[in-house]
Amino acid sequence: MFINETTITVRYAETDQMGVVYHANYLVWCEIGRTGLIEQLGFKYTDMEKQGVLSPVINVNMNYLRPAKYGQQVTIKTWIESYTGIRVKYGYEMHNSLEELCLTGTSEHVCVNAETFRPVNIKKVFPDWHIAYETHKRHV
């Protein structure tokens, strides 16, 4: 299983009145981690989009365990939790500067035709992505 690690610094604008990261910002950080993982595997979302394929989110599950706070470094760990050739589930963990586990979660995505929003078989349309995802997904 391949894991991407991305570190960000919590900005003031990402926190609430208590100085704690507002929950919706974790979704943005998941996207940062997911994009980093995809790029580290040698691919780019923009290349997919140029070929008329989008990858919408179809499900998100986040478990908030500890707060991340303004000024802390947060490490986002991202991996391919599962892959079916059409659906991809990414896994996430986020740790704060104190090395406390702040969040665990997953997001599920499908590839669809940009015009029709009908599912696209990744193996057929993006064989290189398919091989990389099969190779690097979590093996249970």
Please write out the topology.
Layout: E1 3-9, H1 25-40, H2 45-50, E2 53-54, E3 57-64, E4 73-83, E5 87-95, E6 101-110, E7 112-113, H3 122-125, H4 127-136
Antiparallel strand pairs: 1-4, 2-7, 3-6, 4-5, 5-6
- Quickly name the level 1 CATH class: Alpha Beta
Oligomeric state of this protein: single chain
CATH architecture: Roll
What is the strand content?
35-45%
What is the name of the CATH topology?
Thiol Ester Dehydrase, Chain A
Organism: Salipaludibacillus agaradhaerens (Bacillus agaradhaerens)
InterPro entries: 4-hydroxybenzoyl-CoA_TE (IPR050563), HotDog_dom_sf (IPR029069), YbgC/YbaW (IPR006684)
Protein name: Acyl-CoA thioesterase
Pfam family, one: 4HBT_2
Summarize the structure.
This protein is of the alpha+beta class. 26% of the residues lie in helices and 35% in strands.
Question: Could you characterize the architecture of this molecule?
Answer:
The chain has one domain (3-136): Thiol Ester Dehydrase, Chain A. The protein is α+β, with helices and mostly antiparallel strands and 140 residues long. The protein has helices at residues 25-40, 45-50, 122-125, 127-136, and strands at residues 3-9, 53-54, 57-64, 73-83, 87-95, 101-110, 112-113. The protein has a five-stranded antiparallel β-sheet with strand order 1-4-5-6-3.
